[in-house]
Specification:
By secondary structure, the chain is of the alpha+beta class. The protein contains nine helices and twelve strands.
Length: 342
């Protein structure tokens, strides 16, 4: 059995290649995360063509066995604070696993990783105890951070859960798209508070927010067709933003909103602002976006406070995910010793 690995250009790939890619990815989702809704063609190809902004430059390859698309590998090269990291996602059709396909796909992409001179390889998050987690451990990956993925199914959540009063001394401001000019500076500062969230030993770093970075991100989201919904808490005494809650809605998955950030400046914690701003945005989304079916968020498993807030708003825990990483040097050595399909 020979693995034929070819580059995949999402923009120019034929409909046959894209259909085969979707079939492989849909089978992976059904096998690995059966708690999720079935993957659709629009979502699969949309994610392929429009990766998250934080991924940076992305390259893709697909592997064929006897003419069948058996697996894929994605190499993401984030910039800025994460320019020393190469992020790799490998997928193999469930019917063809345990044959060395994933290892060979990973081995194939390593020269491209080494060309970037990035010292750290970040793997795609895995479920603890899963086959993927065991394979990653055998290749020298370490678990550096653990997250709880929580989901709010809007149709089954009582709307009364979102009747949360705004704490005295604060008012809320909502917007869709770009931040208002008169708030952008304090908004950027408030978003920096996300750096206080526990990150374990993970090498990946949160965005360093400045007013300029906010403006660049606003433009990039607009160009990508991503809807950004924001609610902030304003300190009445100063007129400054002191808490933020941001949800992104991608054009290829209009039925799901993804929480990007929830942050409260340290001096304003303990008043219930986090719960208040999250509830306020849910009320607005429920009124203005009836097509939304669910909201997804990830929180460090050690952040029991935020996990509790989410539960109080109707979220349930869908799964736990472990971030895994290794060094480029170690992975190169492990792959050299690992068996190949051939």
């Amino acid at each position: 059995m020979i693995l034929d690995i070819q580059p995949l250009d999402p923009a120019s790939a034929s409909e046959r290649v894209l259909s085969d890619y979707f079939a492989m990815r849909a089978a992976c989702v059904a096998a690995d995360t059966p708690e999720d809704p079935p993957l659709t063609y629009e979502t699969s190809i949309g994610r392929l063509r429009t990766p998250p902004l934080e991924d940076g430059l992305c390259r893709f390859w697909v592997g064929y066995v006897d003419g069948r698309l058996a697996g894929s590998v994605k190499l993401a090269l984030p910039e800025g604070e994460n320019s020393g990291i190469a992020s790799i996602e490998v997928n193999v059709h469930p019917e063809l696993r345990c044959r060395g396909i994933g290892t060979d796909l990973l081995r194939f992409v390593m020269p491209a990783v080494k060309e970037t001179q990035r010292a750290t390889v970040l793997g795609f998050p895995v479920k603890p105890g899963s086959a993927g987690a065991r394979r990653a451990e055998h290749l020298g990956f370490d678990v550096t951070h653990s997250m709880s993925m929580q989901v709010l199914v809007i149709a089954t959540a009582p709307e009364t859960l979102w009747d949360v009063p705004v704490p005295s001394g604060y008012r809320l401001v909502h917007w869709t798209g770009a931040a208002p000019d008169h708030l952008v500076d304090s908004y950027a500062l408030a978003r920096q508070a996300i750096h206080d969230a526990p990150m374990g030993q993970l090498s990946y770093r949160e965005t360093v927010w400045t007013s300029e970075r906010v403006r660049v991100t606003d433009r990039e989201l607009l160009d990508a067709g991503t809807e950004q919904r924001v609610v902030v808490a304003i300190d009445e005494a100063t007129g400054q933003v002191v808490a933020t809650h941001v949800i992104h809605n991608y054009p290829h998955r209009r039925e799901i909103g993804y929480v990007h950030d929830t942050s409260v400046l340290a001096a304003h914690r303990g008043h219930g602002l986090g719960r208040a701003i999250k509830a306020a945005l849910m009320r607005r989304l429920n009124d203005e976006r009836p097509d939304l079916e669910r909201i997804c968020t990830t929180t460090a498993t050690t952040n029991s406070h935020m996990i509790g807030i989410n539960r109080a708003l109707g979220y349930h825990t869908a799964r736990t995910l472990d971030w895994i990483e290794t060094t480029t040097e170690r992975l190169t050595e492990e792959l050299a010793a690992a068996p190949s399909m051939g």
